[in-house]
Design a protein that fits this description.
Keywords: 2Fe-2S, Iron, Iron-sulfur, Metal-binding
CATH architecture: 3-layer Sandwich
Strand content: 35-45%
CATH topology: Rieske Iron-sulfur Protein
Distance between the termini: 14 Å
Structural class: mainly beta
Pfam families: Rieske (PF00355)
Cofactor: [2Fe-2S] cluster
Bound molecules: FE2/S2 (inorganic) cluster
Shape: globular
Radius of gyration: 14 Å
CATH superfamily: Rieske [2Fe-2S] iron-sulphur domain
Family: Belongs to the bacterial ring-hydroxylating dioxygenase ferredoxin component family.
Oligomer: single chain
Helix content: under 10%
CATH class: Mainly Beta
Number of strands: 10
Protein name: Rieske 2Fe-2S domain-containing protein
Number of domains: 1
């Protein structure tokens, strides 16, 4: 299987510009899209704004002791690295790679091809 190609979007000039709430979550904008950014053990993680179950706003949830994001609505848990639904309800959370570079913090979004056979 082909490795995904990413387009990188800058969300901040530096990590210090990301002012996390007490729950270590914030909302950022990448490519005009709201994204949830989490911080766990000094590592930045990114996932979709809404929960895949029923649209809960994930930045209003929290990160548990294992680094999973917990949705505020029904408390389903998701791994913020691979999107797995830890509590087993069968949903999948969209996650994004994060890179902290010298010139800023970037979120990678998969390049969408017009024709999938190209
Ligand atoms: S909306 Fe997130 S667990 Fe139900």
């Amino acid at each position: 299987m082909r490795e995904p190609k990413y387009i990188w979007y800058k969300i901040a000039e530096s990590e210090n510009e990301l002012h996390f709430n007490n729950n270590n979550l914030i909302v950022a904008i990448a490519n005009k899209k709201k994204i949830t950014i989490g911080k766990f053990k000094e590592k930045l993680l990114a996932c979709s704004y809404n929960c895949p179950h029923a649209g809960g706003i994930l930045s209003d949830g929290h990160i548990d002791a294992q680094g999973n994001i917990v949705c505020p609505l029904h408390h389903y848990r998701f791994n913020m690295v691979n999107g797995h639904n830890i509590t087993g309800e069968g949903y999948f959370l969209k996650t994004y790679p994060v890179e902290v570079r010298e010139d800023g913090v970037y979120i990678g979004m998969e390049e969408k091809k017009l024709f999938s056979f190209l």
